[in-house]
User: Which sequence fits this backbone?
């Protein structure tokens, strides 16, 4: 194998992917498995993830599925312990679990705001903390958080103040952890997707005003594919990105150029 390509080889590594049962998370799990990693998928709704687990095993990789509620620190810690018990280590953590709601700010109920922050920010931190402790003990590890272009700009026309705020916090949390942990062998980066062809985006595309605006605001003139995010994650998770930490890699078809 060419030396440059060897940098992307994840053989012998163990990766946790939260929210890996569908959409971007599923594609990330499959992509890292194709690169050689064994995979643990942490999901609240484990049903849709079963097919993904079987597909990974069919590649000859080890895979496990753990019912996990990232909103609960105890659930996250239990998940981390199960992965460590099964594989003996965790090399890569991909924090992908997240939700979005499109409610005008002045109409947003307390429980909706808190629910979005609880999953998108708090849950991500609980995972970074639990898995990060083990990585720091081992002196090595890579964390890739899934943020959003909405953490850098306010996209339109849909209202989503809570989502935007949560993703902006993810970007800053990523930088903060990167700065704290770089000297101890743990790299922390994030990927900020634009509009990607997941079920959530497809629902929004059913609104003709939203669809027209989204495509007009994206210089490439199309939504992205989950694989295009997964490849960015793969890069950051691999040794090819050994000098990258605190990075926010935006993959948005040019949306944030305007």
Assistant:
């Amino acid at each position: 194998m060419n030396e440059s390509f060897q940098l992307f080889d994840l053989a012998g590594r163990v990766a946790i992917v939260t929210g890996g049962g569908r959409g971007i998370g599923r594609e990330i799990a499959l992509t890292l498995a194709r690169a050689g990693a064994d995979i643990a998928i942490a999901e609240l709704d484990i049903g849709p993830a079963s097919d993904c687990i079987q597909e990974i095993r069919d590649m000859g990789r080890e895979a496990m599925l753990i019912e996990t509620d990232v909103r609960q620190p105890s659930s996250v810690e239990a998940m981390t312990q199960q992965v460590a018990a099964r594989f003996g280590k965790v090399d890569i953590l991909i924090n992908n679990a997240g939700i979005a709601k499109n409610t005008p700010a002045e109409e947003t109920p307390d429980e909706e705001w808190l629910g979005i922050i609880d999953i998108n920010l708090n849950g991500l931190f609980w995972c970074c903390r639990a898995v990060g402790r083990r990585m720091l003990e081992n002196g090595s590890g890579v964390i890739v958080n899934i943020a959003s272009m909405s953490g850098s700009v306010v996209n339109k026309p849909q209202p989503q103040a809570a989502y935007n705020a949560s993703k902006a916090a993810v970007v800053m949390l990523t930088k903060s952890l990167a700065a704290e942990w770089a000297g101890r062998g743990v790299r922390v980066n994030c990927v900020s997707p634009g509009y990607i062809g997941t079920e959530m985006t497809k629902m929004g595309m059913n609104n003709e005003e939203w669809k027209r605006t989204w495509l007009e605001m994206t210089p490439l003139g199309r939504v992205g594919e989950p694989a295009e995010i997964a490849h960015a994650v793969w890069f950051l998770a691999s040794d090819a990105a050994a000098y990258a930490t605190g990075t926010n890699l935006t993959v948005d078809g040019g949306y944030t150029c305007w």
User: Anything to note?
Assistant: The chain is about 45% helix and 15% strand.
